[in-house]
Amino acid sequence: MPQAGSEGGRKILELKAVDLVRDGRQVLSGISWTVRSGENWVVLGRNGSGKSSLLEIVAGYLWATSGTVEVLGEIYGRTDLSFHRRKFGWVAPWILKRFRPWERVSDAIAAGTEALVEPGREPSRAVLAAARKQLSFLGCLELENRLCGSLSTGELMKVALARARVASPRLLILDEPFASLDMGARFDLYRILKKIAAARGGPCILMVTHHLEEIRPFFTHALLLRKGRIFAAGPRRKVLKPGTLKKIFDLDVAPSRSKS
Ligand SMILES: Nc1ncnc2c1ncn2[C@@H]1O[C@H](COP(=O)(O)OP(=O)(O)OP(=O)(O)O)[C@@H](O)[C@H]1O
Ligand SMILES: [Mg+2]
Q1: CB of 22 closer than 6 A to ligand 1?
Q2: Which residue of 164, 167, 242, 258 is most buried, as measured by CB atoms within 10 A?
Q3: Residue 218 and residue 206: Cα distance in Å, rounded?
Q4: What is the CATH number of domain 1-72+170-260?
């Protein structure tokens, strides 16, 4: 198979022949994937096909059993990951459980700038200002002084996004960010992601989803996983075809025609 996503702008990430074996189980096989600036990717596949594992490899939380992983110019195995990870933001539903209920929203967001806040110190005014800026960008400045434990799931998801963005990441990794959001909160999040995607100098977005209606037009590319292998990858128009989706999900499904 040709290298997935091999045309276009500056390289954001490049995986070459990546395999992942966990507890003797082959989770990912032969993944070669390139993402370039100006692209936003959606990752699709059945439960257990390896989507989260793939993104965890990109984020350096899982280590490829073989193959090479290069993200934002750093080759894994030759770089300080704890520092490198500050260049990207990560949002997944499980992250919502990591927010301490007694923590003020602005402090929780400020903690996303670990590069700027020394452990055990109060966030500086500059960091708190950066947190406010994010809340304002996401249209929820009114949450600033609330306690995390008092927020709804949708509100907490916005706080998670603000936290992921506060250090101006170059890569934003979203693993099923819409899970457990109601219809209103989903539309809110669509709007926010569209704004992030349109912002000048904004991050490249990688998103795992199970729902075709969540693949808005700003997602330029799609990667389809099947049993830990790339089934199809590239520009969305070429990949998100009913025939391909039928083969992956064993269903008659049509890609979304949404214009925003
Ligand atoms: N620690 C582990 N040991 C063995 N197998 C594992 C381990 N963690 C995950 N797996 C397996 O790896 C496969 C891929 O898991 P992963 O979470 O990446 O799938 P996914 O595509 O994100 O699924 P979902 O849509 O359900 O979130 C699954 O079959 C899972 O059972
Ligand atoms: Mg998953």
Answers
A1: yes
A2: 164
A3: 11
A4: 3.40.50.300
